[in-house]
Fold this sequence. Notes:
The structure is a homodimer of 399-residue chains.
Chain A: E1 11-12, H1 24-37, H2 47-67, E2 83-86, H3 89-100, E3 106-110, H4 115-128, E4 131-135, H5 145-150, E5 156-162, H6 174-183, E6 190-194, H7 206-209, E7 213-217, E8 229-233, H8 235-240, H9 273-288, H10 291-310, E9 315-318, E10 325-330, H11 335-346, E11 348-349, E12 351-353, H12 361-364, E13 371-375, H13 382-397
Parallel strand pairs in A: 1-11, 3-4, 3-5, 5-6, 6-7
Antiparallel strand pairs in A: 2-8, 7-8, 9-10, 10-13, 12-13
Helix pairs in contact in A: 1-9, 2-9, 3-4, 10-13, 11-13
Amino acid sequence: MDSSLNKPARIYLDHAATGWPKSEAVYRAVETELREHGAAAGRGAYGEALHSNAVVEEVRRLAARLVSSSATAAHAAVAGESVVLTANGTASLNLAIHGLLRPGDHVVTTAAEHNSVLRPLEWWRSRQGVVVETVPCDASGRVRSEDVLARVNGRTRLVAVVHASNVTGAVQPVEEIAAGLRRGPAAEAMLLCDAAQTAGSLPIGLSELGVDLLAMPGHKGLGGPLGTGLLCLGPRAAEQIEPLMQGGTGSQSDRLEMPTKLPERLESGNLNVPALAGLAAGLRETLERDLEATARQQRDRTVELASRLAELPGIRVISGGELPILSLVLSEFDCREAAAVLDTAFGIEVRAGLHCAPLIHRYLDTAPSGTLRISFAPTTPQSELDQLAEALEEVAAQC
Amino acid sequence: MDSSLNKPARIYLDHAATGWPKSEAVYRAVETELREHGAAAGRGAYGEALHSNAVVEEVRRLAARLVSSSATAAHAAVAGESVVLTANGTASLNLAIHGLLRPGDHVVTTAAEHNSVLRPLEWWRSRQGVVVETVPCDASGRVRSEDVLARVNGRTRLVAVVHASNVTGAVQPVEEIAAGLRRGPAAEAMLLCDAAQTAGSLPIGLSELGVDLLAMPGHKGLGGPLGTGLLCLGPRAAEQIEPLMQGGTGSQSDRLEMPTKLPERLESGNLNVPALAGLAAGLRETLERDLEATARQQRDRTVELASRLAELPGIRVISGGELPILSLVLSEFDCREAAAVLDTAFGIEVRAGLHCAPLIHRYLDTAPSGTLRISFAPTTPQSELDQLAEALEEVAAQC
């Protein structure tokens, strides 16, 4: 499987898929948990089992801090019990959608969503008579809050909006949608936000955004390992959401019904304690970071890279300009071909295609092939972005 | 969190919950994947993304070998595509149950099941009018095949039987149930077997057992890390099972419907590649082991330990005698109290309570407190079992 001979040094620019490398603290946390502890959480009462419980509770506590608003009278802090642990962002979104919808409901969503939202909604549409209205976006992948709100009616049960497009990085007006929703005909509707591309990169206070449910993977901007996901619940969602899976919870084991208490109501089966230990380390680093300053730097780097690439002949750049995610279209190359050249000739790892977001491409004019996506992290050295720009210059010059 | 001062050396006897320690090869596989590779699987086309795909495909190939019968005309080998990867055994069982049942179905199961089967079935019973018949077991936790078959009727859609009790280690007559089911009024019914306690310990050929679906965690007998589970499908189940979650699959991304092809139809979201690299290493070691010889040794050790403990005053031993899982009841101690003494005074880690198997205890006469459960592995040194017996002798002598 190793073909490292004659390969250029690796430049990883696929952070929108998963973050790599992780920090040394994350690696060590996983390794220590695996090698030195290793007990299941939530079951036994011996010391090492309690250690596993402590790892899990620390993740909840840190994640609750991350999504808790600055303590003001208007914004209550999120409790650790309202942080539900899952296997990935998709599992969090499925739990949210399947846990809230009922046959015949009305749902509003956007063309900028990932298949982890669109496909569960399509299941409800095709099997359970749910009406799904999909709001269009503009040529950078942004939706307008008024377009979302215009589709909400008294029967609307759920509004599902991605915080930022995984294709263009365009950030959606979630706060405006939330404010309008609460004043409109469906004030009780649930607002679900997919923070896959923003958790760890932008502020995601549940109350500040005004959302009821915030879903995110642990392995992207939060710096944790693959195998982790979070679903954070506001009070109304916490009351109403039903489990997607049922099973052992290590509590109230004499009952065949799931416990009603959170988080047990929504978590069955063995938690992935080693990966959660890594996520705790990632969350700690995330909380220590100056989020505003990092976001500003990343915005500046993105805008600079976008304008540099836009000057190259035959390259169209599509970018929301707020997050380090850029989509490119090359007039003379299929995006898959360009990705292959970047990998093999330059050691640059980027992704080509639809990025599991099928509907956005008709608005970006990038259907059916999709785009070449560049995504980076605060840890990406500037020299790697320079190498990317030089490599694309060479590629463009070949036309 | 570390309270290692003055603690006796650690004796881990909770292998029925999760295996620990893992082998050095498993640790190294996880660490190498995390540190040196780290790409998402099934999405990108660059070299490291293809490496992740190769890790995933190796798990499928090895697991398919594990559940494939010795190549005979009667027993077809299981294909890698029929091995579905999940986050744990509970997720595998939920996928099986929710993916097959429809409102109004009839189901037969047993009192020896874990809550990961009983609770999803209770959901279908209470919400969707499914009739669930639960077959009693004997005082060691064993069910009789004729009792299962007597409850099957023409409307039976699913028969769910645990391969071995997680409380007593009693192995169920799955082959007899399978053979009878195929000759009875519900020849088309699906037979689901929960191999949580037997995968890696007993032969689990899908065709030899005669089952349609075999669910198992990756982190117990198979030696992999937490965060891994498998659902292996026979041809009829592969045809009929529907996804429990929908989302990005990295394939047919232009469609809002899930792909119909396996395994993508049933797998959404990012796979846990580092843990799967560890599971591949665990599966390799499992396949290299002489399963029959190891099972025989484990049986002998179990029987010897059980008879040694049964001689102690005030201790009742409940054991199927086939797998290294023993339940104890102490006449003078609550099982939780006994577990705490074993941990703090002797460094022995065992579990007390119902073990997420609520119904079996009425047949073992261990309701409502449950049992003290000892579970070990082929890697458990005999000296640790001796220390356990000596510790229990001391505890019993205190009465």
